[in-house]
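Technical annex B. To support the medicinal chemistry partners, we prepared a structural model of the target in complex with flavin mononucleotide, based solely on the information shown next.
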Amino acid sequence: MKLQIPYDDLRSWIDLAGEVGEVRAVEGASWQEEIGMAAELLNHSDPAPAVLFDRIPGYPQGHRILVNFFGGRRKNMTLGLPSGLNNFQLSGAFTEAFQAVTPIPYEFVDDGPILENIKMGDDINVLSFPTPLWHELDGGRYIGTGSFNITQDPDEGWVNLGTYRVMVHDEKSVGFYISPGKHGRIHRDKYFARQEPMPAVVVVGADPLLFLMTCTEIPYGVSEYEIAGGLRGKPCKVIKGKVTGLPIPANAEIVLEGFVDPKKRKPEGPFGEWTGYYGSGLRDEPYMDVKAIYYRNNPIMLGCPPQRPPDEISRYRSILRSGFLKQALEKAGLSGIKAAWASEVGNTRMLLCIAIEQRCRGLCGQICGRRR
Ligand SMILES: Cc1cc2nc3c(=O)[nH]c(=O)nc-3n(C[C@H](O)[C@H](O)[C@H](O)COP(=O)(O)O)c2cc1C
């Protein structure tokens, strides 16, 4: 089934989700406590709506935050598939489209809404956005949850987009934690091995399809821009970063651009992680000196804080991984597989459910890899 992605950016996505009655507006919630608490309650429930927070005390009206985008009927809309498909059908159809995708290279354009406001030098202030404290014991405010980092391989030139948490240190610096082996980390290691600063961009609030691709394990050397372009059937439009030259989505909401110095570290963490607890404490990590901030008028931060599963990202991963699971079982020669589900409750790794037609004794054991 061909995907028909009916939106181009976060704003047209919000309009469409609003049309199916799945966006609520909330005014006056605090960044210190209320937005984080509300996100946690919403994220656990598939049918709960997306919520757009505005009039956040201490910030200008119009500086908004969207949470819980991936749930309800908007899952199908986000993935460009008919609303009538149930989760199994959605999984099968999306996995098939994802595997068949022909990458489409991104395209540079001269202008875009992200250039509506540009701050440089003394005007740079990351604290001018209403970043929530997402979980009670977080070591700081994380502007990067529904975000992604853009980096370029210094040898091969390809551009990676990866979701890695981003903590606000102060007006002009933000820190990340990137696990070993992640593509952004490999890029950073290459720069650091040469003692060179790494150019980087953090995108906070973008086209939801592109965001989902940045938290999907796409093979090394392939840009998430090209996969999102391929799924949509047209190139992602990008502008050239004024400081780094990196390609920045022309219709993003908020963008931070700068350099990560190999010699500099600041304490980062702890942060509530996808397991539902704090996996690590405070430690020194590299950070980005912010040299430019770009944002649209009335910018919308996309918040996707990890929660104890099920949460919105485990809902997305279930769709993708369940499709892969079913295919893997069929490729292994097991017949009679009626359905497979990598449960969002077990964060898609710890609880795999398989429905089979019991054609012979011992089939369950074969599927689980048990010898009889
Ligand atoms: C909300 C959210 C937060 C994440 N935070 C991190 C993180 O802090 N560090 C990390 O290494 N991966 C994190 N991940 C997982 C990566 O985004 C994921 O593995 C992705 O595929 C990495 O991209 P890459 O393969 O291009 O490196 C997070 C994912 C999500 C959805």
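Notes passed to the chemistry partners:
Residues 364 and 370 are 8 Å apart (CA to CA).
The chain has nine helices and 20 strands.
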